[in-house]
Structures are given as structure tokens and as C-alpha cells.
Amino acid sequence: MSIPEIPAVSLSALCKTYPHSEDPVEVLKGVELELAEGDTAAVLGPSGSGKSTLLALLGGLDRPTSGQISLLGEDLVRMSEPGLASFRARNLGIVFQQFHLMSHMTALENVALPLEIARDPRAWEKARKGLSDVGLSHRENHVPAELSGGESQRVAIARALVAEPRILLADEPSGNLDVHTGRQVMELLFRLVRERRATLLLVTHNPEFSAQCGRRFNLEDGRLGNA
Ligand SMILES: Nc1ncnc2c1ncn2[C@@H]1O[C@H](COP(=O)(O)OP(=O)(O)OP(=O)(O)O)[C@@H](O)[C@H]1O
Ligand SMILES: [Mg+2]
């Protein structure tokens, strides 16, 4: 008898309400999701439906109001803040909708950061390769204020991929890129996922990229349904 595989992502009855004195916003109202290692999933849904909220919960950057989040068999809801930070560094790559690059660090330093945290002796070499993979070798020493929106997006993607995470969470990673560059970085992202059997949760409005995912979901009225 084979041992059942631990799902990469398992969400159950996941709810998130943002408190507000007059008007609390009930964003997620019982999200259910199970992804196996190596699954690729696109999350679609209108603006304000809670896609970024969902990714923030999965990334351990915000806490749910109620419900279960288990990643690679570990319970995120019960983890301490240092535990979450360490889990994130070891297992997650996150591409945020708003980049969240460190403004005082150069592009190269931003990409090297996750490797430095993990004390990887080859941090700088790998960071250089990561920037080169997104076509930005010539911007290594620029800080984010000296980069275009698309360049910042590519730095953010390189940073998310550089430590070869087991789970990749990406919020509109091609949103700020022209068609050609968008295809290039998405190819890179899908290649990593395939080669490393990583699990991808991709928020995208782009039908070309959602079609490349093995599964597609719609976030509507606080719940995930099949798209
Ligand atoms: N910190 C917050 N406090 C209060 N409400 C918030 C907060 N963050 C998000 N919201 C609300 O939660 C809802 C979902 O926001 P979210 O950013 O998750 O949407 P989204 O699906 O990612 O939208 P988009 O496609 O525009 O990026 C929105 O109505 C938003 O106003
Ligand atoms: Mg969003």
C-alpha cells in the first residue's frame, strides 16, 4: 500500500474579514483548496474579490479570521511569527502585486536577500544568474527607484525564484510587463515549477498564462470554485 502524499497546499473553511468600525469587509467566506506537489493552479476573479488577500494568508503574511491553512503538511495558523518567517525562507517564493522590493538595496542585493537569509555560500553567484535569467544583468547596481515598473517586476520574480522554493505564490507577475517580456518571465517561472516539481498558485487575468496551468479556479463571493 502506498503512503498517501501530503498535499502541498490544503485550505479548509478559510475565512478572512478585515475589521472596520462601520463596515467590516468579509472577503473570504470559506475557501477550500487542495493542491498536490507539482500542481499548477490559476486563480481568476474580479478586482476586490480577495485574490491578494488569499495569497497573503498562504504566504503567512496575514492571519486568517478562521479556518485551516496547511502547507507541505505544516499548520501555518498555529505557527509563531519566527516560525512563519523561517518556513517562508525555506519553502516559499512570493511575487507580490506591488513588488515589495527593499528600496535601499540594489537589484542584486534584493535578489540575493533570500539566499543570504538562508546563509547560502553561493548567494551572490546565484543572485547574478537569477538577474541574468530575467534579462537584468545591466541593472545589478540600480536601486528600485532607478528601475522601471517592468524591471522592478522582473527583480521581484528573480527574488522569488532564486532559492528554488517548493511553493510559488505569484500575484499578477506579468501585470507590468510588455507581451514579449511577460512571456519570457512566465516561461522561466513555469520551467522552474516543472523542473523542481514545485507547486504554483498564480493570480492572473491573462488567459494565455491561466491556460498553461493544470487547474483553474474562480474566486467569487468569498469562495473558490472551478473556472
Ligand atoms: N488591509 C485591509 N483592510 C481593509 N480592507 C481591505 C484590506 N486589504 C484589502 N481589503 C479589501 O478586501 C477586498 C479584497 O482585496 P484584495 O486586494 O484581496 O482583492 P484582489 O482580488 O486582489 O483585487 P485586484 O484584482 O484589484 O488586485 C477589497 O474589497 C479590499 O478593499
Ligand atoms: Mg490583488
What is this structure's SSE topology?
Layout: E1 9-18, E2 25-35, E3 40-44, H1 51-58, E4 66-71, E5 74-75, H2 81-91, E6 92-95, H3 107-117, H4 123-133, H5 149-161, E7 167-171, H6 179-196, E8 199-203, H7 207-210, E9 215-220, E10 223-226
Parallel strand pairs: 3-8, 3-9, 6-7, 7-8
Antiparallel strand pairs: 1-2, 1-4, 4-5, 9-10
Helix pairs in contact: 3-4, 3-5, 4-5
Structural summary, described in words:
This protein has one domain (38-61, 80-219): Rossmann fold. The chain is α/β, with parallel strands linked by helices and 227 residues long. The model has no long low-confidence stretch (mean pLDDT 93). The protein contains 7 helices and 10 strands. A hairpin with a 2-residue loop joins β4 (66-71) and β5 (74-75). The longest helix has 18 residues, at 179-196. The protein binds adenosine-5'-triphosphate (ATP) and magnesium ion (MG). The site of adenosine-5'-triphosphate has 12 residues, from β2 and α1.
**Proportion in β-strands:** 25-35%
Describe the main β-sheet briefly.
Answer: 6 strands, mixed
Identify the strand order in the major beta sheet. Answer: 6-7-8-3-9-10
Please state the CA-atom Rg, rounded to the nearest Å: 17 Å
Number of strands: 10
**Could you list the spans in which at least 5 consecutive residues all have pLDDT below 50?**
none
Outline: globular
Specify the number of helices: 7
Terminal Cα separation, in Å? Answer: 34 Å
Structural class given helices, strands, pairing?
alpha/beta
Ligands in the structure? Answer: adenosine-5'-triphosphate, magnesium ion
Indicate the CATH topology.
Rossmann fold
Estimate percent helicity: 25-40%
In the CATH scheme, the class would be Alpha Beta
CATH architecture type: 3-Layer(aba) Sandwich
Q: How many discrete domains?
A: 1
Q: What order do the helices and strands follow?
A: EEEHEEHEHHHEHEHEE
Mean pLDDT: 93
